[in-house]
Amino acid sequence: MGTARSGEDIVDEKFEIDPDTEKVLVENKWMSKADMAGRLAERLASMDYHIGRLSAAMEYLDTNLKSFETFSVRLAPEVADQLRQAAGRQSVHVAALIREAVVSYLVGLSLNSLRIKPD
Fold first, then answer.
1. Whole-angstrom distance between the N-terminal and C-terminal Cα of the chain?
2. Domain residue ranges of the chain, discontinuous segments joined by +
């Protein structure tokens, strides 16, 4: 006999999100808010009330998208072109490549600050 998860466990669940496409990975599928709303409507119409996880995923996506900050930068045309090419080679959005680069840079700064400095 399976163990039912409490509603609190579902609400506290973390989901993987893609901020560029505004989708969340739920039920092994990337879904937008519209996709999840449609799936919820279908389930309710068929009297399938197993909607807690979809509802939690929609709330998680919405909350996270609202919390993101946007930055704007100006790049020389050559640098912008190199950035687009690098993103294309990795099959990711330019924004995803920029986020990855910023995180890598910040991790490097943190590691540098941990080094023991000679007297």
1. 64
2. 7-67, 77-114
Amino acid present at 71: F
Query: How far apart (Å, rounded) are the C-alpha atoms in residues 58 and 48?
Result: 18
- Condensed to tens digits (0 to 9), the pLDDT of residues 25-34 reads 999 999 999 9
Summarised one tens digit per residue, pLDDT across range 4-60 is 455 555 557 899 999 999 999 999 999 999 999 999 999 999 999 999 999 999 999
Percentage helix, strand, coil for the chain under 3-state DSSP, each rounded to 5: 60, 10, 35
Backbone angles phi, psi at 111, to 5 degrees: -65, -40
Q: What is the pTM of this model?
A: 0.69
Among candidate residues 35, 40, 15, 10, the one with its CA nearest the CA of residue 25: 15
Residues 62 and 103: their CA atoms lie apart, in Å, by 23
Cβ contacts of 97 within 8 Å, gap of 6 or more: 83, 86, 87, 90
